């Protein structure tokens, strides 16, 4: 199921939609890196392509992480 989520990035509130499975993997990635989920989302947002949206960037981050065997951060 796709759910709407909200986060504060650099003092600005934003929202994005993600499937539950992607949300769960983002939590796993954040925990594995000993960082908050908000910090991970902010990092991904900072490094995404200007023409991509945050939801897509989050999915691509999870995909890259999974393709690397879940052991290294993209």
TrEMBL record:
Keyword Flavoprotein: no
Keywords of this entry: Transferase
UniProt GO MF annotations: transferase activity
Xref: InterPro entries: RHH_dom (IPR027373), RHH_sf (IPR038268)
Boundaries of every Ribbon-helix-helix domain copy: 3-65
Pfam families: RHH_4
Protein name: Aryl-sulfate sulfotransferase
